[in-house]
Amino acid sequence: MSGYTWVKADYSQIELRIAAWLANEPVMLQSYRSGRDLHMVTAKRVLGQETKSARPGSQDPELRAAVRGWAWHPAACGTHDFNMDIGDDEARMYHDAFFMAYPRLRQWAQGSGGSHQAHGRSVSPLGRVRHLPDGSISDKDLAHKGGAEGINHPVQSFASDMLS
Questions:
Q1: Cα separation, 41 vs 52, whole angstroms
Q2: pLDDT, tens only, 20-33
Q3: pLDDT score at 33
Q4: What is the DSSP letter of 120?
Q5: What ranges do the domains of the chain cover?
Q6: Could you tell me the fold of the domain covering 104-164?
Q7: Radius of gyration of the chain measured on its C-alpha atoms
Q8: In terms of Cα–Cα distance, which of 136, 134, 115 is closest to 124?
């Protein structure tokens, strides 16, 4: 059509990049600055492997895929999506190792969750407010979901704001 142009944009790992920025997580930020693939860096850090080969072009697709979901869903750890057969104890171990590798990300997430529980809302970096269930409600699943959404909201909202 005349007067219109199609644009294809790759917002590679935009939410991870935003989370790294919000948490001011130095390892994640340095990985991005140096052009490393954060999924590979993370997989190697969590598994205790050297990270020198975590550069574009040196990716192990299975190792890279395994890292997705480790951080936020410790019981599932993305195992269903990637045909991984691990139990809850091993999933918890990966989850804990992830946050040991990125301690500022954990601090930021705990601060966001705590803020949500205290105020019943989550606020994005540009001020967008999302009202969420109170963390003290008796339905544990709903309280956990609200906590996760309270942590995710600033990241996802900021990504949305950037694309608007």
A1: 9
A2: 999 999 999 999 99
A3: 93
A4: S
A5: 12-101, 104-164
A6: DNA polymerase; domain 1 (1.10.150)
A7: 17
A8: 115
